[in-house]
Structures
1.
Amino acid sequence: MDMRGRVNTALKQAMKDRDARRLSTLRLINAAIKDKDIEARGMGEDAGGVSDEQVLAILAKMTKQRQESVRAYEEGGRLDLAEQEQNEIAVIEEFLPRQLSEAEVTEAIGATVAETGASSIRDMGRVMAVLKAKYPGQMDFGKVGPMVKDQLCGK
């Protein structure tokens, strides 16, 4: 089943279960996907809808936004709002692939550096592009960037 189908199935189940928190998060996911559909149509792209890779990118972005909100709410002493954001993150992460461990990320970076023939920091963009294509939603690319840089500078 594609990502859009999984989200819709979960949405219907949340309606049946009368789970209001989960339902609202799933509706936010659906709205973000539909916004991306509309944006793609406006740019003259395929009217078939966004791909699973694009849905993963949307979900990763939504997760990152909520993590930033959690930090801001905790700093502001609004633990109730931080908890609500954490609940949304948990629902969104159900649709994301398993995150790679640090050892797996390091191994993937090494393999990609070897595969691309990267030898200096100037090749970092190429390495990052390959990693993003191979491992969508499986790595925190904010943390991966410095790791790639370290590996390229260490050569």
2.
Amino acid sequence: MRRKLEEERVRLEETRIPSLDRRPADFSFSTERGATVILDATGAAFAYAEREIAKPFDLQIRSGERIGLVGPNGAGKTSLLRVLAGQVPPSSGTVRLGPAVVLGWYAQEQENLPPNQTAIDYIRRLRPFTEQQAISFLGTLQLDREAGLTQIGQLSVGEKARLQIAGLILGGANFLVLDEPTNNLDLHAIESLESALEEFPGTILAVSHDRYFLERICTRTLELRDGILRDYPGDFAWYDEHPESGVVLTSKSAQRA
């Protein structure tokens, strides 16, 4: 399996964005772990445009867990992630965060960034930096002064990706909800992000098509397929090798009804 994952990583590297700067971005998270129970979903279900994305399920995420959400293309993984992140309400049931949980949301489409602000203004709204301090901080993420003074809507997708990560770092999130976080990063930035997430003391829930990222970061796997959410008690390699080990997450409240 490890050889298979390495071969997959090589294939992915051939299609990823090349690094124009050999210096890696310096991603580093510092936060408290938060509550014992980070997220508690009870009887949660989601439907969109008459399509059932997820049947009612119960799900608990505990502090320190690192969960990968996988499934076939079109299964609705991003939609479910939005429900769990509180971006949209469930169609039924409840999704609650625990006390002292600070959620950090990484959006695949980058729509959570204010397009008319400059990168420096965005950073200074999150932390009381001077302009020079903001420029220095952005520099550690491979965003130069010119990028810092540019409106966010005019930045490249890679620059926006780094800026989103900057927001996660400065926001003090202890629960990272990540939708395809490696898509728009070059190889060195991906490796730096993976290293930072390995050291992250909080909780992670991530959707990714990058098998190597999932294998390196996540230790529990959820699969969404045909509206059914299954829980696998291991990392992506375990999920891949033991497809029969998944437990269907149904709703006890729905069963009683």
3.
Amino acid sequence: MKLHDVAVVGATGMVGRTMVKVLEERAFPVNRLILLASERSAGKEIPFHGKPVPVQKLEPEKFKNIEFALFSAGASVSKEFAPHAVRYGAVVIDNSSAFRMDDGVPLVVPEVNRRQIFKHKGIIANPNCSTIQMVVVLKPLHDRFKIKRVVVSTYQSVTGAGNKAVIQLQEELAGRTPREVKFPHRIAFNCLPHIDIFFDDGYTKEEVKMMKETQKIMGEPIKVTATTVRVPVIGGHSESVNIEFEKKASPAEVREILAKTAGVVIQDDPKNNVYPMPINAHEKDDVFVGRIRRDETVTNGINLWIVSDNIRKGAATNAVQIAEVLALGK
């Protein structure tokens, strides 16, 4: 197999480090790995296949001869440096929100819209973490029953807000006043129905992301409404998803379809207390589904509970999977 020169931008962050880890775990054919971050992080080392790889300062010329550039350093960094990477010939797989809704940029979850990968013009966008785990489940059900409407409420862990958020939760749980705060309110023993900024219509940016990204990935104007909530969990996002279909769908049929879907694991035996939980999704790449039941308030309705590791499938693993498709060329 051909070996490839790969760069990871934002390599010292939570997602960046996981990208490096996933590249190793999945035996991605790496020839040369370049780790890039801010000047403050330059000189740090991250292990890859048992050897320390030094982190370098992010500069345009570092993308020379790079084939795949995995970005996870925020929208402003992506907007500034992704064009440089493309100019040097790299394919950028960007984890930020910078390019997701650009018409000329594919927004990709390989299990859902793999063919879009090859329509790129140098940049491929990684969707929002909560969107990724939901559309992996929605796609095979839409193919069978045709989705009319989705109502989703999320329970998102603090890792989705970065290291500062994790530290705030840990310090609050320990009874200490956090040195820095990420959230506008206490997160320990609390839930915040507030992720990202609020718009004038009352929705948050995170909610709008889920609504618009789902439509772009699925390639159809499916009606989606969302409420996103931050909860005091260290890792793993959970979602309560209500789906209304055009065709009749039984819980048994839904289980059968999802059991055959790549990347999905059914955990649905509530009588024995078996259902997806973020603590069990930690460090796993699958999307877990349970609490599958009929919604009796509409003609063709199903309720689901969906859980996934937001740092892995919700970010790092999805990006590496996109690179794998490109590396294989199919």
4.
Amino acid sequence: MWFCSESAGRRRVGAAALAAVLTALSACGGDEVLGPGVTLVEPTDFDWNLPEGFPPPRVPEGEAMTAERVELGRHLFYDTRLSANETQSCASCHQQALAFTDGREVGLGSTGQNHPRSSMSLTNPGYQPALNWANPNETTLSHQALGPLFGEDPVELGMSGMEDELLARLRADATYQTLFPAAYPAEVDPYSIATVTRALAAFQRTLISGDAPVDRFRRGDADALSASARLGQALYFSERLECFHCHGGLMFTGTFDFEGKSSPEVEFHNTGLYNVDGEGGYPWPNVGLSEFTLRPEDMGRFKAPTLRNIALTAPYMHDGSIATLDEVIDHYAAGGRTISFGPNAGVGSENPFKSSFVSGFTLTPEEREGLIDYLHALTDSTFITEPRFANPWPPS
């Protein structure tokens, strides 16, 4: 709901009523309709439907959440008209059944171009103050959406230079003729790139996962984790394995933010995945944070993604170069990956920029099984089947 702000307090105004008010405003001027001292206030009472113990995500100023904006964003997220050749949507690289990833080593654009990095999971993206693998400047979902839509290197949806065409496609659709005005009733023209990206962001903020077995166990269900998974949990949070240092907290990552937190936390790490020149080098163009900071010590530093739903998001690492969870454990147990031959040959454990938390460890077969069982217990089956997150368009 929207509000009119008055000296006597606030009163609710439904979207349809607000649209009528704004039509009158455009015809005869503000005070004659709203009255003196009355201003429109964006809504603040959105129902997040949060899991127990979850704080609300932080929402940027000017992007207030409403059910209408979320629904518009959901339609846009699944709409192939957002790609130049109308073959792909956001959901092409972010599939709900795979925790909003695509199962590929690296992303594939609408023109068939392979991307240098894998498609990140959209598990709890509203809690992420840094949204890409290594770009510290991409901090809001609405701004991040511009990259897939209009980026040219690599091409994703390929709409660069076709902004007017995109808006024309949306205006012509009967469904959007209802959804856009309902989502943005205060806009004289609700169809704009800004409203498109903000609606996409609104939908993505609702992609909240917090009903995995580990969550039910935390809430007091002693049967939610098997004995093997409980062993894995103890190992995960031990100084011996040190997993939790980079993948900790409620979101199982070191990069997170939420409403009421004093400041965002953003971390990037070098895990010894490569050492191509014996001096810490990573293969271009995936050089990590150093691409943006130009600091040699940031070579190979990437964001530690959330481990929620990790069993669904293979293959792993920023370039999809590790196929299974078993192989991921091998990598960390060795303290870094050794590649014996080929252009990327090198001993990752000897990378001078490697995180001190990647020091290696040994596991018994029982412990390895327990750790994998615990990682599987991070899978939220509700999240990947939730109708609110599914494709709203009828089958073609």
